[in-house]
Each structure stands twice: as C-alpha cells, then as structure tokens.
Amino acid sequence: MPQFAQGTGTNTYKYNTVVDLGDVIAASVRIKQQTNWGMTISGLSEVRFTYIPVWSREPKPEDEAVDVPWNTTLKWRSGREASQHKVYVSANEQMVIDGNAPVNTVSNNSYSPNLALGQTYYWRVDEVNNAEVPVLWEGDVWSFTTGAYITVDDFEDYNNTQPYTVWDTWIDGLTDTTYGGSRMGNEYEPFCEEDITYDGSRQSAPLYYNITSAAKSEVFANTANLKVGSDWMKGSPETLVLWFYGNAGNSVDKLYIKLNNSQKVYYTGDLLNLTRSVWWQWNIDLSEFNVNLANVQSITIGLEKVGSGVESHILIDEIRLYREAPPVPTEDIWIEAESVTPTAPWAIVDDAEASGGKCIATEDGSGDSLTAPATPAGTATYTFNVAGGDYKIELRVNTPDADGDSFWIRFPDATNVNTPDADGDSFWIRFPDATNVAPGTNETNPGWILFNGAGPGNGWEWDVVNSDVDDTQDAIVTLPAGSNTMQISYREDGAQIDVIRIISVNE
Questions:
Q1: DSSP-assigned letters across all residues of 265-297
Q2: What is the pLDDT of residues 486-503, one digit of tens each?
Q3: Residue 452 above 90 pLDDT?
Q4: 122 to each of 76, 82, 100, 110, 271, how far by Cα in Å?
Q5: 328 exposed, middle or buried (CB, 10 Å; 0-12, 13-18, 19+)?
C-alpha cells in the first residue's frame, strides 16, 4: 500500500511522493485514504499522472509536410516497450486507415520506403510487443507529399574559378573538337548568365554554337558530375524537362538531346522559338531515349544546322526529371507587334533589343489618352486563329518609368471590366470576339480593362495582362474557335510593344 509523505506546508516543493503504477493498463485510478498523519483534517493538494505513451508519435517528416525528398527515411518516436513497429505506407489513405496497405515490420524506429516524385503518401506505425497485453497499439495516420522533380543540373553551383566553371562539367568544342563549334559559358566573367534566368534562379548557362560551317555544336556532361547521378529510375520519373531561352539572332535550327551518346531526341516545338527571347519548356518522355535509365552515364545537348546555319547562342536552365511534368500550353501564339501597320500616334520604330529589331511605339508629344478611343485612331489591329477556350495575354513591353506603366485592354462582349487609372504610359487593347474576361467594372470606358504596373522603367520585359482591380490575377479571356481580332491602342507617350503572346490555359 503506497504511503504519501507528509506535506511541508510550504509552496516551494514540486512533489513529495511518486507512485509507480507498474505498467498497469487502466482507464481510471481510485485513491482511498486509510489513515493520516495525526491531523483532524487531511487531503491532497494536487495529483498528477505522468506516462510514456505506448503508441508512435512525433513523425518525421511532419504530418502534411510537402516537398519531401523522394529518398526520405521515415522516422518517429517509439511507443513505450515497443519491440517491433508495423509500418503501413500507401498513396491510398483509406487502405492505410483500414490496415490493408502493404506493411513492413521493422525493429528500429525508422523505415525507408520506395517513393515516387510528386505523390502524396499516407502512413501509420503500429507499435508491437508480443509479451504485453494488448500486443498492438495502433498509431495515427500521417501524410506527406514528395517533391515534384529531381534536379539534373540547375547551374547554380558553378562559379568563375576552375575547376568549378560550367565548362569544366559541360565539355564543349573548345575543349574537345568532336563536339563541333560549341562553347559553354560566356567568354569573360561572369561565365554564367546572371540576369536572364528561369523561375528566379541565380544563374543560367549560355550555350554558344557555330553551325555556319560545322554540322553540329554539342556540349557533353558525365552524369557522375551532375546532381542526378546515373540512376534515373529513382523516384520513378517519366519526363525529362529542360528550359531554354531563344535569341533573335539565331536561325531556325534543330535542338536535340542524347543520353549515353545514343540516338538524338529532337525538340518538336516551333523551331522559331530558338529565335524568341522568352523561356520555353521542353518536355521529353524518357521512353524516347531507348536507354537503360538505371545506368545513364552521360547527357549531350546539341544544335544541328538547318539551311545556312548561324553563329549565336541560347540559354539553358533547370534540367529536371519529373513523374508528372508541368503541362506545356497547347497553344502559344507569337505575334510581332510590328507585323501590322498601326495608325498614328503609333509608329513602327527600330530597336536593336526588340525581337526582329523593331517594335511599335507612341510618338513623343502625342499626349495622354485617359479614355478609351471611340474611333480606330491610334490602334494596331491583329487577326489570329485559335482552337477556342480560355487564354491569357502576355506582352513584351518597355515603359519609360513608374508613371508610364499601364495598358487598356477591351473585350466588348464581356460583362465585367476594370476601372482605369489616369496615370501611366499604357495601351488600349481589345478582343472584339471575346466572350469573357477577368472581373472589374468601368462605367466610363465600358469594355476596356486597365492593365496597370507593367514593367515601369525596367527596360524590355514580359508581363501577363492583369486587372487593375486585382493585379494578382491574370486576365483570362474566353475566345471562340476560329478567327479572332485584337486591337491595341496607345495611352501615353513613350510606351513600346515588341511581342504579343496569346497562351492557352485550358490545362
């Protein structure tokens, strides 16, 4: 029978008696007083129950964690006296709840499952001790989501000092003439590109090529020197993805990739994209390479001459392996702004940094156009064909400063448009055949959207058209299949437009 010590009568002690319950499994505990310390009245000031849990807890990765590495090891804090752990892991939550998922019994509080990229998994750990009653304590169900991709090369770790330059890993024609007229990296520091990068990365890799006389230009890398290594089966990827950035000085050439120096897999998108200064996504099904993906020893990126060829360059960034790659738009319509003759005060002007060396710009002194034009004056009209559906509009623009950074966009058949702003260099844009547009209202200029904050004073840059009512939302327009018309009208002095892209968002 446990005996409780007599209290000291002070408030400085934490406890004076500990009773070991001896691993008794109980739903309640009854305390019955038999005698006391000779006092007329006795009692307990505080009773606390402490225990070591018998079930698993504190999962690693934490419950609902995201971007978990494909090769992560699951860990947890063991339950009291557990001698074994039954680990259930599945992409099917209900199977884990019901205990029907594949189970592995381990003796340590860790387990390394075979995981795929971009997948949500559910798991639980049941603690087992065959010498105790009950034998098993069922754990909670936890979840985590693995990262979407494995990096082949993101070009972030290269610097300007050998042996850590980009050409030390990616062998080019300057190092080995069998790779033709190629050069990986800039001729002078910095050897990697630091301003034009994909997805906010720190740097990308310039691939210079000369196929005016040579049949090809290639760069070659051993996978042992890359982050991915040679086993491309890990994480169960299905697609190789590469982003490249075109150059207006390029010719229309063939771009390809080889694994293990096997057959070439060619870029099947519009070859004109090699001449267009924007990041293009290239998805390749890994089955196209016809190699042993568990033993990929090398990767080669090359360009092949079409016609007369040219000496120029592209940028490469973020080569990745995905199980489910980001979708590529089914339609990506590229329109050179100077491809039509606009009405004054628009004019076609020369600009060496513009695609094709030309753009359209407003004439100096044309004055503000704070309301949408009621006539075709000051407009450029474009006709294009689409398959039909939802589209976003992206412009390559150059606006002089923060007071000249907005555009007007009109969809006459839409029920909602957004409120204009009196400040800023901007353009009027409309899609007469459109049937829908992002939310907004404007009683003064019905049908026109104000696209505000478009690259003020930053030189040429790409901006997706959005609404001034909510500049965090892209303006989405629904267009019928077939021929559609788009009009762009000036708003203030000095604004320039180089390229218009109409991109499907049907995915």
A1: EE--S-GGGGGSSSEEEEEEEGGGG-S-GGG--
A2: 888 777 777 889 999 999
A3: no
A4: 14, 22, 12, 15, 44
A5: middle
| 481 secondary structure, DSSP code | S
* Structure tokens, 422: 């009196």
- What pLDDT shows up at residue 422? 40
- Computed over its alpha carbons, how large is the radius of gyration of the chain? 33
Q: Enter the tokens of residue 307.
A: 């016609």
Nearest-angstrom CA–CA distance, 293 and 231? 6
- Answer for the pair 79, 86: CB distance below 8 angstroms, yes or no: no
Sequence letter at residue 327: P
Contact yes or no for 182/173 (Cβ under 8 A): yes
Task: Reduce the DSSP state of residue 95 to 3 states and report it.
Answer: helix
Residue 186's closest CA among 227, 158, 224, 212?
Answer: 158
Q: Point out the least confidently predicted range of 27-36, 123-132, 275-284.
A: 27-36
Cα-based torsion angle of the residue sequence 157, 160, 166, 171 in order, rounded to the nearest 10 degrees: -150
- Which tokens sit at 448? 């026109």
Chain length of the chain? 507
What is the rounded distance in angstroms from the CA atom of residue 356 to the CA atom of residue 338? 9
Phi first, then psi: give them for residue 315, nearest 5 degrees.
-110, 145
More confident of the two residues 411 and 190: 190
pLDDT at site 251? 74
- Flag whether pLDDT at 254 surpasses 80: yes
